[in-house]
Structures are given as C-alpha cells and as structure tokens.
Amino acid sequence: MKSIERSTNGSAANSGVLPSHLRLATCGFALLIVLTQTARAETPAATRARAIAQWPAARPIDRAKLVRLGLRVLKGRHITLVTDLPSTPEVDELPNLVDAAVPLLAQRFGIDEEDLRDWHLLGSVIVDRETFAAADLLPTRGEEFPDGLSIGYELWVAEQPSDYYRRHLLLHEMTHSFMATQLGGCGPGWYMEGMAELLGTHHWDPKTKKLRLAVMPASRKVVPMWGRPKLLQQAVADQRLLPIVSVMQIDNRRALDVEAYAWVWALAKFLDTHPRYRDRFRSLRSQTLEPDFNAKFRKRFAHDWSDLETEWRLFVSSMVYGHDIEREAIDFARPAPRRARTPHRLPIIATRGWQSTGLRLEAGERYEIKASGRFVIGQEPDGTPWPCEPGGITLDYHAGHPLGQLLAVIDPRPESRPDQAASAGPRPGTSAFLHPQPIGLRTTLAPKRSGLLFLRLNDSPDRLRDNRGSATVSIRRLP
To answer: Can you name the residues that pair with 457 across neighbouring β-strands?
Structure first.
C-alpha cells in the first residue's frame, strides 16, 4: 500500500487504496494502518525503515517531450524541477534553494548528510495545469491541490503571487517529502503542517546562496503574501484565541484555510524558539510514527503545562512581526515566595518581558510600589537613544500604555510542584498577563486575588533588543 501526503498549501495524507474522500490525518498514520500489527513486534528503527521503504522513487521524465510542450527543466543536486514559468533569476534559482535546504533539514531531523547524497525529488512549479497533464506530470490519481501537494519523492506547487511565497510553498512541500522519506512519517496534522510552515518561513540570499529556515520575519515587506501574524491578530481581536489543545485538533484530513496554517505555524514557532520548551519540542522528531503522538506531547509538557498555556496566550495576543520569543520568555521558577512585609528592592531589565519579583501579594492587603532610574527604551532611525524613566514616555505607545512605563501583573495561579502536576494533571493557564496594571513611578496596589507579582517596562515584543539598562523597583506592604 502506498501512502500519500496531500496539501492545499500544506498536506493531509491519504492511503493509496482508499477512496480519495477518505483522507487520513497524516502520512505517518496512513502508513501505520499497514504497519501497526507488525510494528508491535519490531524495533522503532525497523518500523521506520519499513515506513520509508513504502515510497517509490520519482517517475522518470521525457525531457524531449517536455521541451516540445514548452516546459523547462531546471536541474539541481537534490531536485529536478519542471516549470512553464519564463526564465527569471527568481525562478531559475529554485534548485539552488532546495539544495541549500537539504543540509539544514538533515541537521534539524538528525539525518546523516552522507545518507542524503542520492536523495532527489521531482518537482513541478505550475501555471497551466493542462500542459502538465499533457506531459503526464500531474499526480497519477488526479489528486487535487489548490496550492501544493507532496507524494513521497514528488511534489507540485501552483504558481504564487510573490517570489517569496513561491519559495515558501516549495520549502513547505519539500519538508513534507523529507519527513516522509527520511522519518517514515510526519506526525499528526497540526505537527505535520506546523513543521512545514515553520521550515517554509525562510530568509534566502541569492547572491551568497545562504538560506535560513524557521525565521521570525522582521516585517511584512520581507515576506509578501505570507500574512500569518495579521491573521492571528484578527482572530484575537474577534475573541477567537485558540488554546494549545484546540490547535492540536487541527485536522488536515480536509483542506485547511489559511488561518489554520497560521495557528499551526505559531505553535511550532513558539515551541521551537522558546528556551524552556524547544529541546522537548525538537525531540518529537523521533515520534512521528507513534499513534499516541499527541499523548506523548502532552506528557512531555505536563509538569509545566499551565506556564506553557499562559505564555502561549500572551504570545498570540501580542503577535507582531519580529516577535522576540526568547526575550519575552517568562521565568516562572517559583522559589518559596517572599511576603512583602519588609521593603524589597530589585532591578527590572529593559531588554526583557515579564519578570518575577518572587513576591506573593495577598488579597485584602495594600502594597506601595515605587520605581526609579533611567534606561533606554528605543532609538531614532539614526541610532539616537530614547532615554526613559519608569513613568514612561509619550513619544510612542504600546498596547495603550506609554513606552517604558512600569507595568504589573499578579499571577493568581496556586503554587505547584512537578510531582504534584503528574498526579493532578495539567493545570490551565492564566490570562492575567493580558490585562496588566500601570504602575509608573509610584502607586498603591490592593490586589483582589492573591498571587505572585510580575513586572515589566512596557515595550513591543519586536523592539526589546533596542533597549538598554534597567529600573530599580521597591515594594513594601503598607500597614
């Protein structure tokens, strides 16, 4: 039986002997229908080898016939690309793009580059489908693909409205082909599409032939027609923020809309970049053939699921191009919290997001918070710094507050230990960080709920790297 990855700007999988409308969740799961009974007695390596062996080599092409039909053949080390697009530097460099991506994918998925010396794809970049049908280059069973499709060592990409998005879609489908033919499967739909979207988001330098994958685009201008952050911003504005478990339910057995791709990209990008979660996320590459993939994912993050869900909500709600996930990462480490009965002083760093004070504030009490010091909260285009104090500056605003203003959040979640999380199950996150309270130079807090106090200097998540210095904050309980 042959397993098929299928995509409309992505992929869902399909078993080769089922009717086309009975689509399976992932290429890996499709293979497991054949392999499940025998795999129980096999080692993981043997199961993977069996899954990989299901993929036949790409079909040979009749170059003379293709030329007669007006098609061009572009050759690279790892791809033969057929297209009816006219010759331009942006089109003709596509084989170089694929060749540059192969060692990066090998490193990402733990594959020895030597094992990929003969790895080769047949790809089509299509304007007129009738011409490709006449050339016998469309999928053999007539699979539909509004934008892209991957079947083992063959892939198809419909022409796109920008050079960037054409490359993005080619890398997206190439990722599916790589995972299917090297890992044996791609995991459940959200992971399959999330990885393809993550690794399709790239920076390419045609002069040096240097490629970077899994980038956070700095602006809309560098990724024309991609638009994932805007889709998420609109979803949040419409109060349609998806928790992680809902993103994990995105099912590519049916054609997905573009917003679904935005959600799976965001989750993959967040987990792949966050310093506390990325190692666990990247280790999932060895689980793509596991039928209980999602359960193992939940188990990996069970002890800090509440923190993960909290930061996920904050990430999506503050989504911008250039979002600095690493600097925005919150350290939730909860040593025995101090009660603010005596004055407590600490620095709040301008280049970081939310920072724990280690102080637990009690409901019904009153606390005085004072801040002082000067720091840099941005700069002019010519590099002239913007000096600032904790009261903020009105040269610019972010999320309704002056830039640099000291903000506070009280995290009301109860304390828990990792051993407790395992028995009690994952706790839900909190949305408290979405509703910060302005502090400025001085204020009195009277919390309605007890919790751990977090502080930050207000700035957009894409502009933290321009900042310098810190403010000094003093906190004491009032009698």
So the answer is: 406
- The closest alpha carbon to 36, from 22, 5, 15, belongs to 15
**Residue 116, domain member (yes or no):** yes
Task: For residue 199, give the nearest of 220, 224, 236, 170 by alpha carbon.
Answer: 170
Domain limits for position 356: 304-477
Domain-embedded: residue 176: yes
Least confident of 98-102, 179-183, 234-238, 381-385: 381-385
Tell me the three-class secondary structure of 354-380, residue by residue: CEEEEEEECCCCCEEEEEECCEEEEEC
**C-alpha to C-alpha distance for 477 and 475, rounded to whole angstroms:** 7
How many other β-carbons are positioned within 10 Å of the β-carbon of residue 202? 23
Q: Which candidate, 190, 273, 260, places its Cα nearest to that of 228?
A: 260
Among residues 270, 293, 315, the one where a domain terminates is 270
3-state helix, strand, coil split of the chain in percent (to 5) is: 35, 25, 40
pLDDT over 50 at 5, yes or no: no
State the pTM of this model.
0.90
Residue 137 located in a structural domain: yes
Q: What is the CATH number of the domain that holds 353?
A: 2.60.120.430
CB 163 within 8 A of CB 93: no
Rounded distance between C-alpha atoms, residue 453 and residue 355, angstroms:
9
Q: Are residues 222 and 326 in the same domain?
A: no
Residues 345 and 242 in one domain: no
At 141-157, the pLDDT tens digits run 878 899 999 999 999 99
Please name the amino acid found at residue 79: I
What tens digit of pLDDT does each residue of 86-120 get? Answer: 999 999 999 999 999 999 999 999 999 999 999 99
Q: Which of 182, 62, 60, 170 is nearest to 117 (CA)?
A: 182
Strand duo 437-438 + 344-349: pairing = unpaired
User: Of the candidates 270, 289, 313, which is a domain's last residue?
Assistant: 270
- Looking at the structure of the chain, the number of domains it has is 2
Give the CA dihedral 392, 397, 401, 407, nearest 10 degrees. Answer: -60
Identify whether 143 is part of a domain. Answer: yes
Packing angle, helices 44-53 and 163-183, rounded to 10 = 120
Angle between helices 189-200 and 258-273 (to 10 degrees): 80
Integer-rounded Cα radius of gyration of the chain = 26
Q: What confidence score (pLDDT) does residue 87 get?
A: 98
Contacts 24+ apart (CB under 8 A), 276-284: 276/304, 276/329, 277/301, 277/308, 282/108, 284/187, 284/191
The HSE-up count of residue 26 (CA atoms within 13 Å, CB side) is 32
Any residues with CB less than 8 A from the CB of 244 and at least 6 apart, and which?
A: 267, 308, 309, 312
Q: How many C-beta atoms lie closer than 10 Å to residue 397's C-beta?
A: 14
